[in-house]
Structures are given as structure tokens and as C-alpha cells.
Design brief:
alpha/beta, 5-stranded parallel beta sheet, 13 helices, 36% helix
Length: 414
């Protein structure tokens, strides 16, 4: 729980700043209504443009800017342009909060988006809750919901909790009759939660071969040698930073699984890291419906504007931009509290498989995911320069949004 809160007011005259390296203080002279009626509506882009999450930041920014450009070309939102103000977090929680604070104080930002990584996301979430400015995150774990089910200013559009990463994979196991499953966990919180989810959802009669490795591991050979080469499916999702390396080393040791699931990794960086071997079994997942006409059309526009592929993270940025814009329109107001209220109650058709809607605390509800594979013999019509096409391997049913307690099941005995 956050230690302090500030009463909700329609036009705030102060902001309480919190975060690593920041003492609590009062920033005078800041309006929470987004500036005068002639000024653009500003959104703070708290993006990873350097550091380990650097591949995500520019794609997410491009998607957000594409969404905002559509509004501005159509007369704006509430008759005002909407703009994205961007600063680099550099994987730092303290820098993230400094950027957030500056955008709200100096630029009257009415919302923020984009932290990547655990510390930046949690500290930005604390700032959002204490200062009542909605935050739309790129990633994060259960502890980003800093007030539990009473969290009201933190939203996580792109992906659900880790248990809902594992739930559809259990269905893949059952549909294909897999009995030999391999998992290398990332040590720490991820292992605790993932291990419990696998126990809860996967069939009891399968043979689960497991090992654990540090987050920064680069040589998985010794862990893989503990597993039979007849392993049919690997759950690479359990070690997101090492999944691509693990996948390549697996083949060097004689493995040839039917499927290697991973995380919400963007497709193009994944293929760049792995090469054509990705076409054998590598399968990330996403809420983006790559197969839909809506995605194909928007991907063509994106390619024309950016000379690039409309990857998962760019599509997530676009969806978040539309969510913020439609929330402002629905609220009829650029007040941060009104925007957050509108987001909690919205049902929005987007590029995702299911309409975007949220539980009260900001987790997506009734979202579905698609596991996709790489076709090295084709490329999409909207971006023929790409070295691969995408094909859907499995599509889940809509899944109920998890409570913060459900999301952390298994963590330190929960």
C-alpha cells in the first residue's frame, strides 16, 4: 500500500512527489486539467530508450504518435491537439519518477504511459496513485497495483498477469497430448509465481522437467542437459530474458521440440536474434490480432509512415494511444481523474483479439491471447521487406481479469 494519498480534486494546485531518491514535497503551481483550452493535451511518455528495454521504447512511441496523429488530423480531442512528450527512463526508477513529475508539473500532462522494467513501473505506479494521474503501463508484475484492488490510476493494457500467460499454454498441452514438458525458471519472483501457475493449470499426468537459472544467464547448456532430448514442449515464458538464447542452445544439444513458447517479445527483434531457426518452434504470444483486417490495414499505414514493421510493441502503443484519446472523449474532460474513471468503464474495439476492458484496479478483463509462429518462406503484404511472415498457432478463449492477490499466488507463500 502507498503510505499517503492526496484527495481527489478537479483542478489540483499541488502534486506530491514520491520515488527512489526523492523526498516527499510539494510542487506548487501545477494545474491538473491539462493547461488552457487552447493548449495541446499532453501525455507523458516514460519510455525505455536506452538500457535493456531499449528495443521496446521507440516502437511503443511510434505507435502512440500514430494514434495521436489520427486524432489531430480529425480535429483533435475535445477540439484540442493531443501530444506525446517523451523522456528516456534509462532503466531507472528514480529517473522515471523525475520525468513523470516534470511532465505533470511543467507541461500539465494529464496521463502517462510506457514504463518498462520492474523498478520504473512500480515507482511510476506509486506516483500515479498518490497524485491521481492515470498511468498506462507497457509491462509490469502484480506489485504495480500498489493499492491492491483499490488501485485506481494504474492500467495495464498490453498483457494480463503471469497466471494468464500459463493458462492458455495448459490448453495447448491438452490439445496436443504433450507429456514431456521442459521449463527453465528465472530465479526469484517469476519462478515462484510461474511454478505455482504450472502446478495449478497443467495436467497432473505429464512429466515436467525443470531447472532454475539467474535472470542474466547466457549459457543454458548445463540446465538443458538435465532434461530428456525427447521433450515435446518448452515453456520459455518462464525465463523471458533468456528465452531466445535458450532456444538456440537447445538445438545445439540435439533437442527438437514441437513448440517453444516464450513471452510478449516483439516478432522482429526475436527473429533478428534467432534467425531462420525461429521458424521451427519459437512461439511468442500477444493480444494483438495479427490475422485481422483491422491490424492489416493499420500495419500498412504504419509501414508507409515509418518504413517499418508494425510489431507487437508498436501495436500496443497504438492501442494505448487510442485508449487515452477515447477515455478523454468519453469523459468530456481532460481532467486526470475523469480520464481514469472513463478508462475503468470503457469497452473499446482495438487491434486486440477481444474488446479492451478493465477490472476496477486496471487489469484487462476477458482478454484473449494468440501464440504465433514464424514462416520463413513468406512476408506480409503490408511490409514485403520483412524476412518472415506470421501464422497463428493457438488462440485462447477470453480470460477473466485477475485480482492482485491471484496474480501473486505463489509469491512468498501466497
Amino acid at each position: 500500500m502507498v503510505s499517503e494519498s492526496i484527495p481527489t480534486v478537479k483542478r489540483r494546485d499541488f502534486i506530491q512527489a514520491t520515488g527512489a531518491g526523492l523526498g516527499a514535497g510539494v510542487l506548487a503551481g501545477c494545474s491538473g486539467g491539462g493547461g488552457s483550452s487552447d493548449d495541446p493535451i499532453s501525455v507523458a511518455g516514460l519510455l525505455p530508450l536506452s538500457g535493456i528495454y531499449a528495443p521496446y521504447g521507440p516502437m511503443y512511441r511510434n505507435g502512440m504518435e500514430m494514434a495521436f496523429s489520427e486524432y489531430n488530423e480529425d480535429g483533435g480531442v475535445l477540439g484540442r491537439d493531443i501530444e506525446l512528450l517523451v523522456a528516456d527512463n534509462a532503466d531507472s526508477g528514480e529517473q522515471t519518477v523525475n520525468n513523470f513529475q516534470s511532465f505533470v508539473q511543467e507541461d500539465n500532462a494529464v496521463a502517462a504511459c510506457g514504463p518498462g522494467g520492474l523498478a520504473p513501473t512500480i515507482q511510476a505506479a506509486n506516483f500515479a496513485e498518490q497524485n491521481q494521474v492515470p498511468l498506462y503501463t507497457l509491462a509490469g508484475l502484480f506489485n504495480m497495483f500498489v493499492n491492491g484492488e483499490d488501485t485506481r490510476y494504474v492500467f495495464k493494457p498490453p498483457v494480463q498477469g503471469m497466471r494468464n500467460w500459463i493458462r492458455p499454454q495448459a490448453e495447448i498441452v491438452r490439445e496436443n497430448g504433450y507429456s514431456e514438458i521442459g521449463v527453465i525458471y528465472q530465479n526469484g519472483t517469476l519462478k515462484q509465481v510461474m511454478e505455482t501457475a504450472l502446478q495449478d493449470f497443467f495436467p497432473e499426468d505429464m512429466n515436467l522437467h525443470t531447472a532454475s537459472a539467474p535472470p542474466d544467464e547466457t549459457d543454458f547448456s548445463s540446465y538443458l542437459r538435465q532434461m530428456p532430448t525427447e521433450t515435446e514442449m518448452f515453456v520459455g515464458t518462464a525465463h523471458p530474458p533468456g528465452s531466445a538464447t535458450m532456444y538456440s542452445q537447445m538445438y545445439e544439444l540435439g533437442f527438437d521440440p514441437d513448440l517453444f513458447t516464450t513471452g510478449i517479445n516483439p516478432a522482429q527483434p526475436s527473429f533478428s536474434n534467432i534467425g531462420e531457426q525461429a521458424g521451427q518452434a519459437y512461439s511468442p504470444f500477444t493480444q494483438v490480432d495479427y490475422m485481422s483486417d483491422a491490424y492489416q490495414s493499420k500495419a500498412q499505414e504504419y509501414a508507409d509512415q515509418n518504413d517499418g514493421f508494425f510489431d507487437t510493441t508498436a501495436a500496443d502503443g497504438y492501442v494505448t494511444g487510442r485508449l487515452i484519446g477515447e477515455s478523454i472523449k468519453e469523459a468530456g474532460s481532460a481532467d486526470p481523474t475523469d480520464i481514469a474513471d472513463a478508462s475503468r468503464n470503457i469497452t473499446l474495439d482495438t487491434l486486440y483479439i477481444e474488446p479492451l476492458q478493465f477490472k476496477e484496479w486496471g487489469i484487462p478483463d476477458q482478454a484473449a491471447v494468440s501464440f504465433y509462429g514464424f514462416d520463413v518462406d513468406s512476408s506480409p503484404d503490408h511490409y514485403p521487406d520483412l524476412d518472415f511472415g506470421l501464422s497463428e498457432i493457438f488462440r485462447s478463449d477470453p480470460m477473466p481479469g485477475l485480482t492482485p492477490s491471484e496474480m501473486q499466488k505463489g509469491y512468498e507463500g501466497n
